Amino acid sequence: MVEVYAEPLCRRHYSSLLSWAVVVRLLLLIIAIACALVIAYATGGFWVQIKPTMDQATVQYTQDALLLIEGGSPGMEQIWSTNSLINAQFSEEFIPASVQTSVEDTNYDGKPDVINFVARVQSSTPVYGVKVLLQFQYGFFNLVRVQMYSLAYFSASTGTPGGVLYVDGDLNLVQRSPINDMSYNGVYNYPILNSQPPNTLQSVQAPSQLLFEDIIADYKTRNYTTTYSNVYPVWKAGSGNTFELKMVVRIPPNQMIWYRPQTIEMLKNAWIQFLATFIVLWWLYSYVEQFIFFFRLVSTRVASDLHPKMQRF
């Protein structure tokens, strides 16, 4: 003989609504819910208020730059900028520059992966140091929606005159606070290297000094910035006064972004954590119920499937 079907037989316990049996059943249910909430919360991951995501930023070079060439002693600085007002302010220190820029999209996804910036100057003195600021329009438009103007800053100096400086680095996002999920953020979507406030002219001290530290300090007060990091510079010595800066800015394809999820997403994750814990606890409490009702610790009326009721026709 082969078993082809099985029917479970039950013993059903009945009681009035106002009885100790109902109180015990409700008490066990409440304890299971409370313990599931406590365990899910205490073990972490129950109410996730900050979550990470990965995305590639859409970056565009705004054709705004600021270049400071340093000589062998103080007072021998030379300045070039895309801002005509700054060039006029530093007319005596102004140095013409030949600039070339190019964009590379290596994976053909419509987003720039590499931005190349090349500047060539004919300095009146040997070049011992250089400071450069490049401005970009930087944004994310998927799960996190933020658009802003950002900067890439780099500084290098040496004890010998330089002819070529090659630098390769990544443009990474820096956050002081998480970004709200699915909410457009454009609070910093205004140019930094321009002639309108807030502008770099606020950092001009005296007729011939431009303080990069003031520009950087004002920029670093923002909640969201970019930094030119993971930099590999190569400084080549030069015998003449011709200097060439080659700057490669790479946009990481998997930028880590910390965001604040919406309430419905936090509730969904919390519900999964609670349900997974509650099922295990309720399975354990079922044995407690079985012990209570099997040994008749509370008064109930029992109906067994082993003794079916008489059929009436």
From TrEMBL:
Instruction: Kindly state which keywords UniProt assigns to this record, in alphabetical order.
Output: Cell membrane, Cell projection, Cilium, Glycoprotein, Membrane, Transmembrane, Transmembrane helix
The signal peptide stretch is none
Is the keyword Membrane in the record?
A: yes
Top-level taxonomic group: Eukaryota
Any one GO BP annotation for this protein? regulation of protein localization
Kindly list the residue ranges recorded as spanning the membrane. 20-42, 270-288
List the GO terms this entry assigns under cellular component, sorted alphabetically: ciliary membrane; ciliary transition zone
Q: Does the keyword Lyase apply?
A: no
Identify its membrane topology class: Multi-pass membrane protein
What's a Pfam family in this record?
A: TM231
Q: What is its main location?
A: membrane
Where is it located? Cell projection, Cilium membrane
Annotated family: Belongs to the TMEM231 family.
PANTHER family hit by this protein:
CHST5 PROTEIN (PTHR14605), TRANSMEMBRANE PROTEIN 231 (PTHR14605:SF1)
According to its UniProt entry, what is the function of this protein?
Transmembrane component of the tectonic-like complex, a complex localized at the transition zone of primary cilia and acting as a barrier that prevents diffusion of transmembrane proteins between the cilia and plasma membranes. Required for ciliogenesis and sonic hedgehog/SHH signaling.
Full protein name: Transmembrane protein 231
Q: Which organism is it from?
A: Chlamydomonas eustigma
Lineage at the top is:
Eukaryota, Viridiplantae, Chlorophyta, core chlorophytes, Chlorophyceae
